[in-house]
Design brief:
The chain is mostly beta strands and 396 residues long. Helix content is 0%, strand content 34%. It contains no helices and 40 strands. It has a 4-stranded antiparallel β-sheet with strand order 5-4-8-9, with no helix packed on it. A 4-stranded antiparallel β-sheet has the order 15-14-18-19, with no helix packed on it. A 4-stranded antiparallel β-sheet has the order 25-24-28-29, with no helix packed on it.
């Protein structure tokens, strides 16, 4: 009989093995990766192989020693591999444990927690930056120098130091559980301003007896130290109520104000409100009454003919602390008065020739009091006597 040629009897094919090419997740065996490649091992020489990503419902022909998974989560046994050896034996399936393929991570979004300035101006007194779009379990970092250095973030926010940050200076990025690093999210230009200075206030002019007695006839209070763009308010009742200020001054109503009764505060464009600046005790006196002036005695034929031999003019209605002046030439020149009277030289004075005015402690000058016409006559000539007719021997 003829000899049988050499044959190989092969009744089985071993199941191939499969594993993630790289587990890039938090640990090397957590099954979470950004690398979609599944490596296939244990393939017999000349064998063909197939893989399934739906638990064996459908199969696709494999090539080489790996295949790619689309991003997603695959429970254990969902990903399978089998081979058919050159004898036609179909192996049992090799299965992949549960895996998650994640090949991308969104860019996180930074934003001011609160823009306390004019809406949308990026000026705030709240230094908190919130971070949105973080994936569950992802780690994240932030930079405040345009990416020069990075700091690890925690929670969903971080704090900025006071200052001005140009657009793109504040950045945020995240790395998800699969190890994917996102692009950077950038904050627009912002200014973090967490404080505002206390304004200053002072009398515009201290018109009193001295320049420091805080008694004035000028009701204006000037306000200094206002920040550009800031608004300000003033109070004249110790802070119980406030009024909006304009410009750099306000007017006080006449009266006496104790220390701290008059206050000023400002609110800057970031929304910071300063403490109140206090004005010391002041008295605002914007008017003084004209004095009263009368002859000390009208000694003429009647008590009202304004002809007198008493040159004294008495002055009344002088306010405490006020000074007064008198004029005997219709206001062309003035002399300082003392006490409550002055003396006129003998003569006749027309209406308004004799005038008196006072200057109070706040520096207010009163209207002048004008004396009606009067005559000061303090002497009389002796009478002369003679015979109506000398009829004697001689006329002498």
């Amino acid at each position: 009989p003829a000899a049988l040629a050499p044959v190989t009897i092969d009744l089985t094919a071993a199941p191939p093995s499969l594993a993630l090419a790289t587990d890039t997740g938090t640990s090397p065996d957590d099954g979470v990766t950004s690398d979609a490649t599944v490596a296939v091992g244990g393939l017999e020489p000349g064998a063909t192989w197939q893989y399934s990503t739906d638990g064996g419902a459908t199969w696709q022909a494999g090539t080489g020693t790996s295949f790619e998974l689309v991003p997603g989560t695959y429970p254990a046994g969902t990903v399978q591999v089998r081979q058919t050896d050159i004898a036609g034996n179909i192996s049992s399936t090799g299965t992949l444990p549960a895996v998650t393929i994640d090949t991308g991570v969104p860019v996180p979004t930074p934003a001011l927690a609160s823009d306390t300035g004019v809406a949308g101006d990026g000026v705030t007194n709240d230094a908190t930056v919130t971070v949105g779009g973080l994936e569950p379990g992802a780690s994240w970092q932030y930079s405040t120098d345009g990416g020069g250095t990075w700091q690890a973030g925690a929670g969903t926010s971080f704090e900025l130091a006071p200052g001005t940050y140009a657009a793109g200076t504040v950045l945020v990025r995240q790395t998800d559980l699969a190890g994917n690093a996102s692009g950077t999210g950038a904050l627009p230009a912002v200014t973090v301003d967490t404080g505002v200075s206390v304004p200053t206030l002072a009398l515009a002019s201290d018109t009193g007896v001295s320049g420091t007695d805080r008694v004035t006839g000028d009701a204006t209070v000037t306000v200094g130290g206002l920040e550009p763009g800031a608004t300000w308010q003033y109070s004249t009742n110790g802070g119980a109520s406030w009024q909006a200020g304009t410009g750099t001054s306000f007017e006080l109503a006449p009266g006496t104000y104790g220390a701290g009764v008059v206050q000023v505060r400002q609110t800057d464009i970031a929304g910071n409100q300063s403490a109140g600046a206090l004005l010391g005790a002041v008295t605002v006196d914007t008017a003084v009454a004209s004095p009263t002036v009368v002859l000390a005695a009208d000694t003429g034929l009647s008590a009202s003919d304004r002809v007198t031999n008493d040159a004294t003019v008495t002055v009344g209605g002088i306010e405490p602390g006020a000074s007064w002046q008198y004029s005997t030439d219709g206001g062309a020149t003035w002399q300082t008065g003392t006490g409550t009277s002055f003396e006129l030289a003998p003569g006749t004075y027309g209406t308004g020739v004799v005038q008196v005015r006072q200057i109070d402690a706040a520096g207010n000058v009163s209207d002048t009091f004008e004396l009606p016409s009067l005559t000061i006559d303090i002497s009389v000539l002796p009478p002369s006597g003679a015979l109506a007719s000398d009829t004697g021997v001689s006329t002498t």
